[in-house]
Amino acid sequence: MSTFLWGTATAAYQIEGAVTEDGRGPSIWDTFTREPGRVRDGHTGDVACDHYHRTAEDIALMSGLGVNAYRFSISWPRVLPAGTGPINPRGLAFYDRLVDDLLAAGITPVPTLFHWDLPQPLQDRGGWLNRDTGAAFADYATAVATRLADRVETWITLNEPFVHMAFGYALGVHAPGRALLLDALPAAHHQLLGHGLATRALRAAGAKKVLISNNLTPVWPASADPADLAAADAYDTLHNRLFNDPVLTGAYPDLSAFGKDAPGDDLDVISTPVDGLGVNYYNPTRIAAPAGPGFPFSDAGLPGHPTTAFGWPVVPDGLRELLTGLKDRYGERLPPLYVTENGCSQADTVAADGTVHDPERIAFLDGHVKAVQRARDEGVDVRGYFVWSLLDNFEWAEGYNQRFGLVHVDFATLRRTPKSSYHWFKAHLGQT
Question: What class of enzyme is it (predicted)?
Answer without folding.
Answer: hydrolase
